Known about the structure:
Elements: E1 2-7, H1 16-28, E2 34-37, H2 42-57, E3 62-66, E4 81-83, H3 93-106, E5 110-114, H4 121-134, E6 139-142, H5 143-148
Parallel strand pairs: 1-2, 1-5, 2-3, 3-4, 5-6
Helix pairs in contact: 1-2, 3-4
Amino acid sequence: xxxxxxGHRNAPxxxxxxxxxxxxxxxxxxxxxxxxxxxYGRFDYMAAGAVRAAKVRHPEVTLTLLLPYYPxxxxxxxxxxxxxxxxxxxxxxxxxxxxxxQHMVRNSDFLICxxxxxxxxxxxxxxxxxxxEANGLMRVTNLAECLES
Length: 149
């Protein structure tokens, strides 16, 4: 089972404990063994940290870094693996992150997101995931709803 993360790059620090609980729940209750995360913004950083913390208790879990560009010039040593979706080499750079995110929504079982419904890529990707959820193809957890309650 694969879980992908997407969220606003300026996500609040208050999200960190919610991410940690969501990751733990996805491992223990949903059977997730692979988490895939991007590299851009605070949400991605906190999501990767939550998975790394969970790996101490669940060493079978993997953390995969989604690469929208090739070559990727950042350090990837804190990840178990990297993933560059086939076909992105022909996508213009301004659209590569969008296409990579769409690919992951089509190829994941779960999405943990932080979507405040602002206009932008996060909202569009979450809407795509919600359509898949309505068809029984994935499950979506929006942590923005947890912060608002």
